[in-house]
Design goal:
- It is built from one helix and nine strands.
- It is mostly beta strands and 140 residues long.
- Strands 2-1-7-8-9-6-3 form a seven-stranded antiparallel beta sheet, covered by helices on one side. A two-stranded antiparallel sheet has the order 4-5.
- The longest helix is centred in the middle third of the chain and has 12 residues, at 69-80.
- The protein starts with 9 loop residues before the first strand and ends in a 6-residue tail after the last strand.
Amino acid sequence: MAISVAKGTKLTIGGKTVAHLTKIGSPSVKWDTTESTALDTEGDFKEFLTTFAEGGEVSVTGNFDISDEGQKAMIEAMAAGTDNLEFTIVFPKKIGAEWAFKASVNSFATSAETAGIVTFDATLKVSGKPELKASTEIGG
């Protein structure tokens, strides 16, 4: 595997590629903690235990195209409040890696400016454990 530019990175929802993307974030795994400091803890530092992890949110930005099947799938999922949709972020073949995760579409908004392209921003809320897989067999 090697370092590569991001060109060719793809996001899919239920197997459908979301077209015209300009930026794709990724799951951001974070552990919650609970304080376990006791009155007989030695030293002056608090102690913590990890509890549950979460996959965070994935931000997506692109050029709006209502005829694109992937963008339509995101809009429909958000409108219906559908949970646990299958998403992948597939990196270029030179990198040979992909994220696979389940998520809901928490937001989808369009934006239009005077001398610009109509764009959209979406946020995916990851549910369960996201997986970052490395393989020479995958990639766009």
